[in-house]
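Lab notebook, bench 4. The sequencing result for the construct came back, and we need a structural model before the next group meeting so we can plan mutations. Quick request posted to the team channel:

Model the 3D structure of this chain.
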Amino acid sequence: MLAQELISTVVPVLHAMDTGAKALRLMNEFHLTQLPLVVDNKYLGLVEEDQILDWEDPDLLLESAPLNAFKPAVMEGAHFYEALKLFYDLKLSVLPVITREGEYLGLITKDNLLAILAQYNGVKEPGGLLVLEVEPRDYSLSEIARIAESNEVTLLSVNTINNPGTAKLEVLLKTNRQEMQGLVATFERFNYNIKYMFSEELEEDLLKKNYDLLMNYISM
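Done. Here's the predicted structure in token form:
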């Protein structure tokens, strides 16, 4: 997924003749703390809420205001991971998307980015979560995938993070299976440490169990 495919079509831009008060109103309306300043379709920088709140006169025009030279942006053809890194590093609420010539195309919001991350991580798909804890030198994605396949389990997503407290690698597996006892047993047989396991039952299965319990209770 490229940055240009995540552009929001509803968030407005600020113009040179807008006032600080108008900028604050728009930020409040769209629940943002930053908005891009665009002049003649050229992206000039991000205007920040905290900056305007420090002004003595909120009716000051943006073109004559003492704005900081804060100009984060991502190229239209960049992968969305680059956008994610900028959001994290710079604590952004929006990220403008531009062409190589600096022309403004639109912006990415946190909501847009969160939605695509959820899709890539299979959040909407039914299934369980398994967190393995391994030594970094022992991590083998091919072996993990082979173990899952041997249990007829599909890995919908795999994410890793280094835990600075333990110096170990945590491997988060999103699977297509709710019942994972067999998979867990196989991982343990291969000396994997299972740190967490989360398995949400499908709604119809839960309803059926509750119904069966009720019938058993009535027949007592």
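The mean pLDDT is 89.
Will bring this to the meeting.
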